[in-house]
Amino acid sequence: MTASQNTPKTMLDLIGDTPIIKLKRASEETGCTILGKAEFLNPGQSVKDRAALGIIRDAEKRGALKPGGVIVEGTAGNTGIGLTIVGAALGYKTKIVIPRTQSEEKKIALRLHGAELIEVDAVPYANPNNYVHYSRRLAEELAQSEPNGAVWANQFDNVANRDFHAQTTGPEIWEQTGGKVDGFTCAVGTGGTLAGVSMALKDRNKNVRTVASDPGGSKIFSLIKYGKDETEGGSITEGIGQGRITANLEDAPIDDAYRIDDSDMLNVLFNLVTEEGLCLGGSSGINICGAIKLAKELGPGHTVATILCDYGHRYASKLYNPAFLQEKGLPTPGWLR
Ligand code: PMP
């Protein structure tokens, strides 16, 4: 590509093609090269801009989304931010259903970008009032009442999500490592990132080891590792953890799963702040812990890639709030007090 072809033409061209960076401490600790894909550099500041763009482009192609239509989604926040910015750039309105428990920072970002927010109680998926079901019903109603119709993004079970990662994130990691990647791991929210990247990497080399890194309170670890519908513990992370095999995870080539503790996740995050100049969100911490575990399993000299999903600023009131951490009995570094 020439320099002029590479120049972004619109905001949408800023999505994807993120840099990949070497994580110093994690690499030194394992004798491996541990790489993090800097997804916080997307315009909506998270990995979920990719799912948003993939889902919207697919809905347009299928004719489901008409000019001036409404996009409806249930989201922990980041997908909502992605859908809202992509929607604004392409002339769509967005209505976002979010559990009340999600961080204020994400809700503020959604409002600033022009989303209409509907906050609902955080109840399990089996409850018909769960945010996912609520958003599906709202989309069905709006499809009838809105002059230009409405679509439900359905990030969990719409495979346009993982397809976009298989077409972009995975091939980018392959190119950026010159094909020298031995393992990949990340946490699961919808499973779109893990499934899509794993599909792309295994297509190119079936020996790349792919692993789900799962926080407490999620069932992905036991579902993948033991085929059992079980969980234990909990986590203060947001946007990750899942109670079922979503359509995005169905038949995905995942070799193994790890359970990662919040205290390990926080130690990794706090070291990144003081030693590497990176302030990242909880899922990035879970992912790096998983990458360290995978690197130790593979042995020195290997290369493991993971995802740096979003900035820590989105969780200033939680992960980086001493009062919140102390109340939960979690490690609080001196510099934060
Ligand atoms: N990290 C963060 C911060 C997220 O918001 C999400 C998605 N909700 C994920 C990770 C998980 O990504 P995916 O949905 O592709 O599994």
Structure explained in plain terms:
- There is one protein chain.
- 40% of the residues lie in helices and 15% in strands.
- It has 337 residues and is α/β, with parallel strands linked by helices.
- It has a 6-stranded mixed sheet with strand order 1-2-10-7-8-9, with helices on both faces.
- Helix 2 runs parallel beside helix 12 (282-298) and helix 3 crosses helix 7 (160-167).
- 52% of the residues are buried.
- Bound molecules: 4'-deoxy-4'-aminopyridoxal-5'-phosphate.
- The site of 4'-deoxy-4'-aminopyridoxal-5'-phosphate has 20 residues, from helix 4 and helix 9.
- 4'-deoxy-4'-aminopyridoxal-5'-phosphate (PMP) binds at residues 46-48, 76, 78-79, 187-194, 239-240, 281, 283, 309-310.
Helix and strand topology:
Elements: H1 3-6, E1 20-22, H2 24-30, E2 33-38, H3 48-61, E3 70-74, H4 78-90, E4 93-99, H5 104-112, E5 116-120, H6 131-145, E6 150-152, H7 160-167, H8 169-176, E7 183-186, H9 192-204, E8 209-215, H10 220-226, E9 256-260, H11 262-276, H12 282-298, E10 303-308, H13 322-327
Parallel strand pairs: 2-10, 3-4, 3-6, 4-5, 7-8, 7-10, 8-9
Antiparallel strand pairs: 1-2
Helix pairs in contact: 2-12, 3-4, 3-7, 7-9, 8-9, 11-12
This protein binds 4'-deoxy-4'-aminopyridoxal-5'-phosphate.
Main sheet properties:
6 strands, mixed
Separation, N- and C-terminal Cα atoms:
49 Å
Mean pLDDT comes to: 96
Radius of gyration: 19 Å
Strand content: 15-25%
GO molecular function, one term: cysteine synthase activity
Domain Tryptophan synthase beta chain-like PALP: 13-310
Cofactor: pyridoxal 5'-phosphate
Pfam family, one: PALP
